Amino acid sequence: MGNYTFPKLLREKYLKWGDNKVAIREKDYGIWNEVTWKGYYENVKYFALGLKKLGFERGEHISIIGNNEPEWVYAELAAQSLGGAVIGIYQDSTPPEIKYIAELSDSVYVITEDQEQTDKLLEIKDELPLLRKVIYWDPKGMRNYRDPILMSFKEVQELGREFEKEHPNLFEEEIDKGNEEDIALILTTSGTTSLPKLAMLTHKNMLKMAENLLVKVDPMYPDDEFVSFLPLAWVGEQMMSISGGLLIGFTVNFPEEPTTVTENIREIGPHVMFSPPRVWEGIVSMIQVKIEDSTPLKKLVYRTFMPIGYRMADFKFNKQKPPLKWKILYKIGYFMLFRALKDRIGMSRIRKAYTGGAALGPDVFRFYHAIGVNLKQIYGQTEIAGISVVHRDDGIKFETVGKPIPETEIRISEEGEILSRSPSVFKGYYKNPEATAEALKDGWLHSGDAGYIDEDGHLVVIDRMKDVMRLSDGSIFSPQYIENKLKFSPYIKEAVVFGKDKPYVTAFINIDYENVGKWAENHQIAYTTYTDLSQKPEVYELIRKDVERVNKQLPEAARIKRFLILHKELDADDQELTRTKKVRRRFIEQKYNELVRAMYENRDNVEVQARVKYRDGREAVIKAFVKVETMF
Question: Among 322, 466, 484, which Cα is nearest to 399's?
């Protein structure tokens, strides 16, 4: 690739296809609205010129917060066209979290989606001295807002149209000034152990990664469809919707609402899908529950053909050629079961499916390959533009994350840490030279993950270096591995495993409220709230069976000896999860120290009082007795 930037690629696609090809599609009020490459280019152009009129300068930063919609992308490309960088903020962030990111990133404009997000900014605007304007794109409910800091998206674009009359070639000139080494994105790290850091990624970082994955390893094509439903503040979504979309030219589709994603995916039938483990686990959980609620005939079909699917998946994993008998049985299974299942979850046209951001359990992997979805693990981090390692089609091993993509080197340090080097490695953390030096020492990106390379050249990720634990007798175990095993159950939404310097392994479990609730109703078990349901004896017995299942697959030392079902769901608003839904293990261990101690003091019941903070600022105290279950 030459000296490309995102805006240069946008202009290239506009000149190539103009009004003849759809670039973006968004569902609104039940109708899929299409935007051609010409419309895409012009929306970016006029918003960029409007920002220029307002005083935006090369090298400045904007933050964007909202759901995945075209306006997010227009704002991002507009700022980058003027030589600026973009910071994505997760939609469910609280005002203090928004303040931290906007202040740390020196954002001079914040682009918001709607009234909800705008209200958050109005709450903290006086604490952001660099903030010039809050620009919103959805005016619903904003009619009576009179704060001078506010401006609508369309007003900015109108300013741009007027500004173009005075400076007709300015937009193109600004694009031409762009360099591949310019900072395009400043994305937050996951923040599992501390406050998020801001990773600076250049246009070259992002586009090299897209080229190496989507051109050289798993080619995508201009006629492909992709559904963008994960937060654009996450590097994984930027990687596909922006980097991949601009490089390849495929159509990016935005769902109507976060709640309609499953339905909208089915309507579009994407060719490629990329999601974190929680999404893939959720789909499996949904299928399993629906099968249990289906007719006896459907249950019979499912239980007859799924073992055949699993057998065919194992042939593939073991690189064995399946006998003719199994091919015929699988073809029958495809017409009887697998085709309908894939269509039901919107994957009838899927060529490639990726999971990343955390490890995915082997059982979930086998399920998707059994029904014919080519699900592959990727590995990477924000600091390397999302991806450095991926499974190849002919070498899928669900205990590994695959091999490095082209132009990427992977090695293991003497301490067992995974180190990377590639053109996609970030430029450093914004305003944090100490952390940058630590992450990039010796010319390699230090991941903080423990791993090794197997005999086939595949990378095996064990866990975070800080999270690999030893029991008091010296036995080593990986909490994440056990947690993934537990979460294959449709009744377990989250799990947190403990045991560092302890005599045995224990676990907190979050039940899946919807699935366990349905199970309780089917078994005529009355309940009122999550807390009430979680402590039912029948629910403990249900979860106990899943713990027993997992224990059978683990070495003796790593088996769970005691567990409890937490009285509340882990929540990012309570700082128990990151905004990317990763468990903050050390925070949880400190916050629920009394419960952790109870599991090692042979107590059977613990009274807990938990303070819960709601989004509107109100607080409440939950009181409950939590039971501790002992495995024999």
Answer: 484
10 Å Cβ neighbour count for 5?
A: 27
CB 577 within 8 A of CB 591: no
Count of other CB atoms within 10 angstroms of residue 461: 22
Mean pLDDT of 4-29: 97
Q: What letter would DSSP give residue 240?
A: I
Separation CA 55–CA 67 (nearest Å): 26
Give residue 467's pLDDT: 76
Q: Taking a C-beta distance cutoff of 8 angstroms, is the pair 543, 609 a contact?
A: no
Give the whole-angstrom CA distance, residue 435 versus residue 457.
30
Residue 559 DSSP label: S
| pLDDT score, position 575 | 82
What is the DSSP-derived secondary structure letter of residue 321?
P
- Residue holding tokens 């769901």? 569
Write the burial class of residue 409 (CB in 10 Å: 0-12 exposed, 13-18 middle, 19+ buried). Answer: exposed
pLDDT value of position 582? 80
pLDDT tops 80 at residue 360: no
Residue 238 in this model has a pLDDT that exceeds 80: yes
Query: Is residue 243 a contact partner of residue 210, using CB atoms and an 8 Å limit?
Result: yes
pLDDT digits over 382-432, tens only?
A: 999 989 999 998 888 877 899 999 999 999 998 889 999 999 999 999 999
pLDDT at 615: 55
**DSSP three-state, residue 108:** strand
Position 340 scores a pLDDT of: 93
Q: What are the distances in angstroms from CA 358 to CA 151, 190, 220, 297, 500?
A: 39, 11, 24, 37, 21
Contact 532, 516 (CB under 8 A): no
* DSSP run (H or E) holding 282: helix 277-292
What three-state secondary structure class fits 446?
strand
pTM of the full structure: 0.84
Could you give the domains of the chain? Answer: 6-271 (3.40.50.12780), 275-348+350-464 (3.40.50.12780), 469-630 (3.30.300.30)
- The answer to whether 252 and 272 have CB atoms below 8 angstroms apart is no
Q: Which residues are CB-contacts of 566 (< 8 A; sequence separation ≥ 6)?
A: 508, 509, 510, 534, 592, 595, 626
Q: At residue 196, does pLDDT exceed 60?
A: yes
Rounded to an integer, what distance in angstroms lies between the CA atom of residue 105 and that of residue 198? 8
The CA distance from 73 to 10, in Å, is 11
Cβ-contact 107, 81 below 8 angstroms: no
Buried b (16+ CB within 10 A) or exposed e, 491-509: bbbbbbbbbbebebbbbbb
* Alpha helix ranges (H) inside 125-229: 153-166, 170-177, 203-211
Q: Per-residue pLDDT tens for 125-161?
A: 999 999 999 999 999 999 999 999 999 999 999 999 9
First to last CA, the chain: 60
The three-state secondary structure class of 280 is helix
